[in-house]
Amino acid sequence: MRTSPDSFRNKKTLDHLYWLYHRREFVHPDPLEYLYHYPHLQDREVVALIASSLAFGRVAQILNSVSCVLEKMGASPLLFLLDSSFSSLHSAFADFKHRFATGRDLAQLLWAARSIIDEHGSLYRFFLTGFTDKDDTVLPALCNFTNAFHDRFEWDWNGFLPSPHSGSACKRLNLFLRWMVRQDDVDPGGWSQIPPAKLIVPLDTHMHRMGLLLHLTTRKQADLQTALEITNAFRKIAPRDPVRYDFSLTRLGIRNDLNPRAFLGSCGFH
């Protein structure tokens, strides 16, 4: 397969950005930082589910909401779940509110997670039941994963936990997978049987904008098809780790001292 001039230029630009910002010191403010406090994998996957599910809105509000939830769950979020009943979860988070997500929504998410853990031992073990190396991406396993949660919901909940079946890019769930699958100074990992090569870019409005600026896509909708298109473009540059550049690219949108257009302009993108 021939590589386009844009691919060479993208790799040079992205590797430079990765070298500058793919470091633990640049994580704050990011809900990812909460995962670092939990060395045990089963605690960390519960924390990752909570932190990624609440990763919408202003970052200060996200961090405050995640912190409030984890404070109630104590030193081991896993044990908190296993010791909780459906009604006790509703009671514990009755006053919780994060934009459109209510305490009832959060309790439902946690109860569904607990049910899956009861049946399979961990969220990781369940995710593996829908995964096969023959799949090009984690999409089939992600569909299986979200179906399991929705099967346990008492009401329609696509806003808080969207499904790939609806065409959603599922940014927060793909962010969850990035945190749990990749393992380096930034992403703590732990889901070692899922190859990073299978991951899908966590596509939000910022990553969509960057995809357009880097000529990785021309699509105007930030949907699943666009997420797969951008992932495939990254795969040509980093086939074993197509979401390698996600964290450093998001720094361009989070950090006040960086201007995405100015940075890309300095690298020859206009």
Structure explained in plain terms:
By secondary structure, the protein is an all-alpha fold. It has one domain (5-266). The chain contains 13 helices and two strands. It has helices spanning 5-21, 41-53, 59-73, 77-82, 86-92, 103-120, 123-129, 139-151, 171-181, 205-213, 224-237, 246-254, 260-266, and strands at residues 97-98, 101-102. The chain has a two-stranded antiparallel ribbon with strand order 1-2. A hairpin with a 2-residue loop joins β1 (97-98) and β2. α1 packs across α12 (246-254), α2 (41-53) runs antiparallel to α9 and α7 (123-129) packs across α8. It is globular and about 55 Å long. The mean pLDDT is 91.
The assigned structural class equals mainly alpha
Average pLDDT for all residues: 91
In angstroms, what separates the terminal alpha carbons? 26 Å
**Residues in helices, as a percent range:** 40-55%
**Which regions contain 5 or more consecutive residues with pLDDT less than 50?**
none
**Tally of DSSP helical segments:** 13
- The portion of residues forming beta strands comes to under 5%
List the secondary-structure elements in sequence, H or E: HHHHHEEHHHHHHHH
Question: What's the gyration radius in Å?
Answer: 18 Å
Taking strands numbered 1, 2, ... along the chain, how are they ordered across the largest sheet?
1-2
Q: For the report, how would you describe the main beta sheet?
A: 2 strands, antiparallel
According to DSSP, the number of beta strands is 2
Gross geometry: globular
Question: Please, how many domains?
Answer: 1
